[in-house]
Amino acid sequence: MDPQDRFxxxxxxxxxxxxxxxxIQDPRVLGAMWRVHREAFISPGQADFAYRDAPLPxxxxxxxxxxxxxxxxxxxxxxxxxEKVLExxxxxxxxxxxxxxxxxxxxxxxxxxEVHENAARRLSDLGYDNVxxxxxxxxxxFPPAAPYDAILVTACGQELPLAYRQxxxxxGRIVIPLGEPGEAQRMYRFTLRNNRWHxxxxxxxxxxxxxxxxxxxxxxx
Length: 221
Ligand code: SAH
Description:
Elements: H1 8-19, H2 27-35, E1 56-59, E2 62-64, H3 67-76, E3 84-88, H4 94-102, E4 105-110, H5 113-125, E5 131-135, E6 148-153, H6 162-166, E7 168-178, E8 185-193, E9 196-205
Parallel strand pairs: 3-4, 3-6, 4-5, 6-7
Antiparallel strand pairs: 1-2, 7-8, 8-9
The protein binds S-adenosyl-L-homocysteine (SAH).
Residues 62-65, 70, 88-89, 91-92, 94-95, 109-112, 115, 137-139, 154-155, 208, 210-212 line the site of S-adenosyl-L-homocysteine.
């Protein structure tokens, strides 16, 4: 164990109590959650809360997802390591870092310029060279790198954007929270197999909204 890693015990406890005990089983996902230092993705003043069983604010009204939610979504994508993945909603960059351990290449989109810049700098400083962070409206997907083996959406919309269906390979998976404003949100997995879509409801979760449009400057942040 790295003596400099003062959060090692807290991280190990998070993996055991928040993930394993709640049913996360994929050893690759558990390993990635153990490797990524969540404290590096929040403001230094909040580091002591890094392994809390909760989302945390990262500014601009946005949050870093709860560890369990990140692990659950990653496990639901059934990644084996060879995939090209699109993440919509970079936020802190934490989810992208976990995906970077689980797949070959990650493209991650963030609509708020400053949130994107902070995450891009952080991911690059941490050496995640298989993550490309892009400042863009994610409801359109990212055509230049399509098609993707998997698409992960970390903000809640009302329906699955058509662009995601068009940018997925046959055999691919999309995991996305969906819900009407003010109503309970549920996680869904859409799988494309032999040109047919299969839809599964994976249960209840809570996310910030997936906002259509270019940037956050007009959102009153
Ligand atoms: N995966 C992130 C969680 C981020 S919260 C993490 O691990 O920290 C969701 C993020 O999605 C927010 O930063 C929000 O600004 C962003 N977002 C919302 N709508 C978006 C859109 N249409 N395109 C790109 N990003 C969007």
